[in-house]
Amino acid sequence: MVRRQGLNGDDQRMIPYSRQSIDQSDIDAVVEALKGDFLTGGKKVNEFEEALANYLGVKYVCVMNSATSALHVAYQIIGLGIGDELITTPLTFSATSNTALQCGATPIFCDIKFDGNIDERKIEALISPKTKAIAPVDFGGNPLNIDAIKAICDKHKLFLVEDASHALGSQIDGLKVGTTADITIFSFHAIKPITTLEGGAIATNNEAFYEQAKLLRSHGIVKKELWNSDMVTLGENYRLSDVACALGLSQLKRLDSFIQKRQDIAHYYDERFANNPFFTTIPIDKTKKSARHLYPILLDRSLWCSKEEIFKALHVKGLGVQVHYKPIYQFSYYKKLLGDMRLPNTEDFYKAELSIPCHQGMSMEDAVLVADTLLETLASIKGCHL
Ligand SMILES: *Cc1c(COP(=O)(O)O)cnc(C)c1O
After folding, report:
1. Is 26 helix (H, G, I), strand (E, B) or coil?
2. Which domains does the chain have, with CATH numbers?
3. How far is the CA of 165 from the centre of ligand 1 (A)?
4. Which end of the chain is less packed: N or C, by CB atoms within 10 Å?
5. Ligand 1, residues 75, 192, 292, 294: which to mutate, most atoms within 8 A of Cβ?
6. Ligand 1 centroid vs 202 CA: distance in angstroms?
7. Which phi and psi (to 5°) does residue 12 adopt?
8. Does 12 have pLDDT greater than 70?
9. d(Cα 68, Cα 72) in Å, to the nearest integer?
10. What is the value of pTM for the model shown?
């Protein structure tokens, strides 16, 4: 675990909200790949893609050097371009909508529910003749009501691009997230469900989309005979190396054990925090399984004015809490582009949310320490008088 100097001078352990888990089997896999003939463009890439496709239960996976790259490619595949609109959530990492802007499209932000996921009941009112696609996010790993969103897409002939960067291994009724949308995106950034250091992927059952993804990932160039090649579309270099894929293969073997560990911690938190006076937690529907990338808590309204104080106090005590997310439309770049906007549930969620430590590197003793420290700290905060 990360050690750091506490503000009171003693050496103190910081438990981050999420952290990678690298063991000897991962290190061995990377070392072996480093000694191989192909550091990139070799067999490990296909192997990792096949293992992912098997794990997810989808026909095709195309890995890339980040989820951001995968989002950009996905939007290019569906032909998102100038004049098009993309309905998405403001409660996400900025890449979900940035990549739509890079395609020349306009993101249309839809309000969320109090579980952090897009409110599917509010989507249809935002559809216009310019709408091309819907791009929701499985917040914290909690699966979206994807069937309801898919039905809206089918009715209005829209593409569905699911940003499942938090949700590798999440399930609905035993089916993995990634099997319903036209294209699903995963992230292998250091602290996402598994890591290739940086990395991401596209999952799809559509063969043509898969072929497009491979082209766009590698300059739009196809090999012909001998030295001859052709460039058939304008692509990028978004490839993931063999060394990274070797790490991914090793990590994927451990994914279910990672999720089990995070679920055990989340289950303990759920019970420990039931009916506490300071915050609520987000229940996961019985039909769903969350990869638990995040464990968000929602502070009571009376504590919103003290959130900075709470955040600082928890960091001083070694709890690396984080806030997910500042609404995208509040960023100055977006304000200049789209003007001022406010979505009431998103605003409230942002004021209430804190992500507390929940990851596979924690022991149950760590979880008890997190819970004790959190409850003690909140009891010492005055709160505002409403
Ligand atoms: C992390 C994240 C991304 C970007 O992932 P990278 O692999 O770092 O590019 C995109 N969307 C969401 C929701 C994320 O959490």
Report:
1. helix
2. 2-20+255-384 (3.90.1150.10), 24-252 (3.40.640.10)
3. 6
4. C
5. 192
6. 13
7. -130, 150
8. no
9. 6
10. 0.96
